Amino acid sequence: MQPIAETKRVRRIYGKGDAAVHALRDVTMQIPRGRLLVLKGRSGSGKTTLLNLLGGLDRPTEGEIFFEGNEIGRLSDGQRTELRRRNMGFIFQSFGLLPLMSAAENVEFGLRLAGVPKEQWKQRIQESLELVGLTKRASHRPFEMSGGEQQRCAIARAIAHRPSLVLADEPTAELDSRMGLTISRMFRDMVRQEGMTIVMTTHDPAIMEVADDVYALEDGEISRYEEETN
Ligand code: ADP
Ligand code: MG
After folding, report:
1. Which helix (H) or strand (E) segment is 125 a member of?
2. What does the mean pLDDT of the chain come to?
3. Which domain holds residue 155?
4. What mean pLDDT comes out for the span 56-83?
5. What is the spatial distance between Cα 143 and Cα 149, in angstroms, rounded to a whole number?
6. Of 87, 161, 166, nearest in space to 128 by CA
7. Does 229 have pLDDT greater than 80?
8. Alpha-carbon distance 137 to 176, whole Å?
9. Which of 82, 107, 116, 199 has the greatest CB tally within 10 Å of its CB?
10. Is 202 in the pocket of ligand 1 (CB under 6 A)?
């Protein structure tokens, strides 16, 4: 089966000359469908850079990135935006909810951007809030929710349009370890039950236990991470 996304010999260099930062060096990897893939690595190792490239938010300095077999570097900015909105979901460390909107309205906003027909909004909002256990918070605004509830709302927003690929950048970093584990188990269940593909970055070892695959980034180089067994 074709991987949902793929990078081939990707480099990303920020800046030029003496000030150049080699954030990614020759990264080649495949993201198989229907799995939860964790990218681990220290701060500064290139995790966010790689997620942004996979999500078409940034372009590589060298190399190619494929989404469902198409090289996304060949798309115009408008086409990449469209691809991102319709086929991908993004989750960030800081939740990124719109403060004046309720949980349901935040999810609705995502559906609108994704071009989902209006007739489907009500049902999609209900389903996705239910999936993250937030039905009772539908009319609450972000400041009326705990950190864990806000992140679950952000997850509902990211998945409501049924993206094939979800990219989550340290989604548990601002949560306590128990909520972090709850959220990551939720990701595992979404992969199992809804058939989504999720790529999540973290540096929390406890979170890695839910992963199907773990990759490690170190100084911009990637390797498949196999746990040592003695
Ligand atoms: P991580 O998410 O693993 O912490 P990043 O991908 O954010 O790592 O950063 C990788 C490296 O690239 C770091 O050395 C960082 O300082 C550098 N970097 C990231 N973004 C930029 C940028 N916009 N301009 C210059 N350097 C950057
Ligand atoms: Mg980062």
Report:
1. helix 121-131
2. 93
3. 5-227
4. 94
5. 10
6. 161
7. no
8. 20
9. 107
10. no
The reply to whether ligand 1 has any atom less than 6 angstroms from the CB of 195 is: no
Number of domains in the chain: 1
Report whether residue 47 contacts ligand 1, using a CB cutoff of 6 Å.
yes
Please tell me the number of the ligand nearest to residue 169's CA.
2
User: What is the average pLDDT across 136-157?
Assistant: 96
Tokens of 219: 């100084």
Report, as an integer, the average pLDDT of 97-108: 97
40 Cβ inside 6 Å of ligand 1? no
Q: φ and ψ at 7, to 5 degrees? A: -120, 140
Average pLDDT over residues 210-218: 94
Q: Which of 115, 221, 122 is nearest to 163 (CA)?
A: 115
Q: Residue 13 C-alpha to ligand 1 middle, in angstroms?
A: 9
pTM greater than the 0.70 cutoff: yes
Task: Return the ligand number nearest the Cα of 49.
Answer: 1
Average pLDDT over every residue of 15-32: 95
In this prediction, residue 64 carries a pLDDT of 97
Which atom belonging to ligand 1 lies closest to the Cα atom of 45?
3
Distance between CA atoms of 171 and 151, rounded to whole angstroms?
Answer: 8
> Ligand 1 centroid vs 17 CA: distance in angstroms?
16
| Alpha carbon nearest to ligand 1 atom 7, residue | 48
3-state secondary structure 17-48: HHHCEEEEEEEEEEECCCCEEEEECCCCCCHH
201: domain CATH number is 3.40.50.300
Query: Cβ–Cβ contacts within 10 Å for residue 127, how many?
Result: 16
Backbone angles phi, psi at 127, to 5 degrees: -60, -45
Amino acid at residue number 17: G
The token pair at 213 is: 């695959």
Does 159 have pLDDT greater than 50?
yes
